[in-house]
Amino acid sequence: MAKITTHTFRVAEARRMQHPTFPTIQKHVLLVRADQLPSGISWKANAREPVGLNRKVYKEVRSSLQGEEFTPGAFDLLNKGITILAEDVRLIDKAKGVYEVDIDNDRGIVDGAHTYQLILQEQDEGSIPPEQHVEVYIRTGIEPFMVSEIAQGLNTGMQVKPKSIYDISGVFDWIKSEIERSPYADIIGFKESDNKEFGVEDIIAVLEALNVLDFPNDQPIHPTSSYEKVSAPLQKFGNDYQEHQPNWHKSKYYKLRPILRDALVLFDKIRRDFPDEWNRQGGSAGKLKIVERAKNRKSWFKYPFSGDSPTEQRLSRPALMPILAAFRACVDIDPSTGQARWAGGFPSVLQLWEDAKAELVAETRATIKEHGNAPNIVGKTRSHWAGLHKTLRLRMALMHMKPTS
Q1: pLDDT tens readout for residues 263-291
Q2: DSSP-derived 3-state class of residue 21
Q3: C-alpha closest to that of 205 among 178, 230, 174, 173
Q4: Are 328 and 210 in contact (CB under 8 A)?
Q5: Alpha carbon distance, N-terminus to C-terminus of the chain
Q6: How far apart are CA 353 and CA 269, in angstroms?
Q7: Average of per-residue pLDDT across 169-190
Q8: Contact 48, 155 (CB under 8 A)
Q9: Burial level of 20, CB count in 10 A (0-12/13-18/19+)?
Q10: Lowest CB count within 10 Å: 1, 10, 75, 184, which one?
Q11: Residues 6+ apart with CB under 8 A from 261
């Protein structure tokens, strides 16, 4: 259950309006002294977290707040203010202009979080002139389905990445639930401000590589966008979720949920094992442009999904994703559940990698010889994607694994 907190606002002016279309919604405008703006207000509904305050645009906001380069007392005329989604607004003392505002900590500031954070910083410094005010726009009675629409509509000063809007909308909730107990849950970011090793778009790209619903095994089409443009699968994921509302569990990507964590393990196995297999075949992986090399022992590559020991070299995404996508041959849809499964179980898939990696590495060698060593070329060569996939389908037949659809 969300926590409701109460905040006291001391205002110079206030007005209230009933929304003409949505009778449950009220709009309040409070003109608040900036040095008296209350702290502790959640900004969870804001599509963009208040980071990057050293950018030029925010330096100008800070300067106008301090009254240094702009007319003192005009801050509320120069700044678009702060918008808050709240539960209730109450007048406590009309003569003193005191209001209490109840805020759900899962909502709070939906626009203006950077302005809010700047004001709090300057409050700590004691550098805000008393004549500076900020306009606070409070909306009550907002239905849950409107929160992401409001966040997207208001955050237009700088482009907000779609994944931040999706995160507010709950689009990624099932992925969060699926990985929340895994040892790698903390290294995956879901908003544009998250400074994590992996973004949710990387996780979705792995799902896209194994997406047998859009790229059936018996058709000559391959999920090249899982490498070429990870924003495309992200957009597809969001559209797929919205299309199936409110029955989002019927969305096609949710049907791939049972193979997600195993797919991440396979992702790690391939990028870790490839250089050693290349060397075993007489090559020098260290000279390949498709292989990444750590600068020193402290920066050796870790494998959070598989838990394997760190290595000095690993395969890069341009060559990794076509190999991972070839394992789409091991995925089918269980007719009884409508969800994805591994043919023969995931241990059989790992064994298939062990048995077939020499051939898959050799095919990558042939592609490099024919098209060049540039990673981008390897990742975009359609015949390479098709050849790897065909190889695994033949291997599966030899292993007598259950055929896929």
Answers
A1: 999 999 999 999 999 999 988 888 888 99
A2: coil
A3: 230
A4: yes
A5: 43
A6: 9
A7: 92
A8: yes
A9: exposed
A10: 1
A11: 178, 179, 182, 305
How many C-beta neighbours within 10 Å does residue 255 have?
20
For residues 71-83, average pLDDT: 87
* Pairing verdict, β 98-104 and 88-93: antiparallel
Strands in 133-140's sheet, in edge-to-edge order, are 88-93, 98-104, 4-18, 26-33, 133-140, 82-86, 108-111
Q: Which residues does 184 contact at the CB level (< 8 Å), separation at least 6?
A: 264, 304, 305
Alpha carbons 166 and 190: distance in angstroms, whole number = 9
> What are residue 333's DSSP bridge partners?
340
Cα–Cα distance between 179 and 207 in angstroms, integer?
Answer: 14
List the one residue out of 89, 83, 317, 57 whose CA is nearest residue 201: 317
| Interatomic CA distance for residues 291 and 308, integer angstroms | 18
Q: What is the pLDDT of residue 299?
A: 92
Radius of gyration of the CA atoms of the chain, in A: 27
- For residue 83, list its beta bridge partners: 111, 137
Greatest mean pLDDT among 67-76, 199-208, 234-243: 199-208
- What is the DSSP annotation of 32-94? EEGGGPPS----TT-SS-S--TTSHHHHHHHHHHHTSSS-TT-HHHHS--EEEEESEEEEEET
Under the phi-then-psi rule, with left for phi > 0, alpha for psi from -120 to 50, and beta for the rest, what region is 108? left
> Given this model, what pLDDT does residue 372 score?
80
298-349 pLDDT, tens digit each: 999 999 999 999 999 999 999 999 999 999 999 999 999 999 999 989 999 9
CA distance 300 to 228: 26
User: Which DSSP letter does residue 377 get?
Assistant: H
Residue with tokens 């808050």: 84
Helix (H) or strand (E) holding 135: strand 133-140
Range with the poorest average pLDDT among 5-9, 147-151, 225-229, 401-405: 401-405
Cis peptide before 246 (omega within 30 of 0): yes
CA torsion 110-199-203-146 (nearest 10°) is: 10
d(CA 147, CA 164): 13
Residue type at 47 in one-letter notation: A
Q: Which position has the token pair 């389905």?
A: 145
